[in-house]
C-alpha cells in the first residue's frame, strides 16, 4: 500500500487482510470532487490488491460520515450538459458500484451523519453497521427540488421496500440508527462503544476465509438481484433534469444562505434547512 500516502481525503491501513479506510475531509466530509476522485482511485487500487479481502469504511469525524454532496459544485454544473440524456450510469454510479461488485467484502461503520450522497455511498456497500444514539441516515434531495441521484432510488427500495423508501425519499427526514435497523437500512444498530469492536471482529473473521470462496459467494448472492444498470440510467437522467431546473438552483441558493454546508447549522437543526428551502423559508401549510 505504498500509494496510501498519496491520499488527502482518506486514511488507509491494511491489517490481516482488512483494509481500514477512514474518511478525513473536514469540515463536513462533503462528497465533493476531491473526495469522489480519491474514492474512485481507492476502489481501483483495492480491487487489484490480492492481499485485501475486506474493506471497512469509517470517519475521522464523529459527527459526520459524509454530510452530503457538495451543493456548490452541483450548482456549478453546466445546464446544457445536464439536458443531454445519458445511456449508461454516470461517473459516481460507477465509482460506488465498484465497491458493490468487486470480489471483496465492503462494510460501512457509521457513527455520525450520512445524508444524500453519503447515504448512497453506504447503500452501495455490502453491509452497514450503525451506532445507536449517534448514527443518522437520510435522503433530503426532494426538498432541494432534486431526487437522490447516486443510486438511492434504486438501492433503497431493494433494501427496505418501496413504501418505506418513498417515506425516506419524499419525507426528507433523518432516519436514526434504531429505526434504520428495523427497516433494513443498516444490518445492525449497536451501542456506540460496541460498534467498533463488533465490526472489526466481523471483518477479521471474514478475511480469514478463502478469498475465492468469499468472491464467488458474493457473486452468487448478487445474481439473485434484478439488473441494476437500467434503473441507474433512468435515475441519472431524471436527476439531471431536476438539477438543471430553476427551482433546484433557487433552493440550493436558499440552502446555502440559511447556513447549509456549515458545521454549526448542519449539526444544530438540519430539518430547518430542509424546510427552509421553500419560497418563504417555511414548509407549506
Shape: globular
Question: Structural class per helix/strand content?
Answer: alpha/beta
CATH fold assignment? 2-enoyl-CoA Hydratase, Chain A, domain 1
Could you estimate the helical fraction of the residues in percent? 40-55%
Task: Determine the N-to-C terminus distance.
Answer: 55 Å
**Radius of gyration computed on alpha carbons:** 18 Å
| Secondary-structure element order, N to C | EEHEEHHHEEHEEHHEHEHHHHHH
Explain this structure to me?
- The chain has a six-stranded mixed β-sheet, with helices on both faces. It has a four-stranded mixed β-sheet with strand order 4-6-8-9.
- Helix 1 runs parallel beside helix 4 (91-101) and helix 6 (152-160) packs across helix 7.
- It is α/β, with parallel strands linked by helices and 285 residues long.
- The longest helix has 16 residues, at 192-207.
- The N and C termini lie far apart (55 Å).
- 48% of the residues lie in helices and 15% in strands.
- The protein is built from 14 helices and ten strands.
- It has a single domain (2-245), classed as 2-enoyl-CoA Hydratase, Chain A, domain 1.
- Its EC number is 4.2.1.17.
- GO terms for molecular function: enoyl-CoA hydratase activity.
- InterPro entries: ClpP/crotonase-like_dom_sf, Enoyl-CoA_hydra/iso.
- This is Enoyl-CoA hydratase paaG.
- It comes from Azoarcus sp. (strain BH72).
Amino acid at each position: 500500500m505504498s500509494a496510501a500516502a498519496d491520499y488527502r481525503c482518506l486514511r488507509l491501513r491494511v491489517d490481516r487482510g482488512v483494509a481500514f479506510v477512514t474518511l478525513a475531509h473536514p469540515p463536513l466530509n462533503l462528497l465533493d470532487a476531491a473526495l469522489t476522485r480519491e474514492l474512485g482511485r481507492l476502489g481501483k487500487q483495492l480491487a487489484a490488491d490480492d492481499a485485501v479481502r475486506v474493506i471497512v469504511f469509517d470517519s475521522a469525524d464523529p459527527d459526520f460520515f459524509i454530510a452530503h454532496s457538495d451543493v456548490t459544485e452541483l450548482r456549478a454544473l453546466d445546464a446544457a450538459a445536464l439536458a443531454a440524456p445519458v445511456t449508461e450510469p454516470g461517473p459516481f454510479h460507477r465509482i460506488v458500484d465498484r465497491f458493490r461488485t468487486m470480489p471483496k467484502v465492503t462494510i460501512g461503520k457509521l457513527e455520525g451523519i450520512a445524508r444524500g450522497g453519503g447515504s448512497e455511498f453506504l447503500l452501495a456497500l455490502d453491509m452497514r453497521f450503525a451506532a445507536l444514539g449517534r448514527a443518522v441516515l437520510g435522503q433530503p434531495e426532494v426538498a432541494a427540488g432534486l431526487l437522490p441521484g447516486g443510486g438511492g432510488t434504486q438501492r433503497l427500495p431493494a433494501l427496505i421496500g418501496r413504501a418505506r423508501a418513498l417515506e425516506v425519499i419524499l419525507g426528507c427526514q433523518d432516519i436514526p440508527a434504531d429505526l434504520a435497523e428495523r427497516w433494513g437500512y443498516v444490518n445492525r444498530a449497536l451501542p456506540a462503544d460496541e460498534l467498533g469492536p463488533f465490526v472489526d471482529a466481523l471483518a477479521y473473521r471474514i478475511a480469514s476465509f478463502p478469498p475465492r470462496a468469499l468472491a464467488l459467494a458474493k457473486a452468487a448472492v448478487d445474481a439473485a438481484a434484478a439488473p441494476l444498470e437500467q434503473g441507474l440510467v433512468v435515475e441519472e437522467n431524471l436527476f439531471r433534469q431536476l438539477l438543471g431546473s430553476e427551482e433546484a438552483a433557487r433552493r440550493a441558493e436558499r440552502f446555502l444562505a440559511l447556513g447549509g454546508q456549515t458545521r454549526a447549522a448542519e449539526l444544530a437543526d438540519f430539518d430547518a434547512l430542509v424546510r427552509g428551502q421553500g419560497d418563504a423559508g417555511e414548509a407549506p401549510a
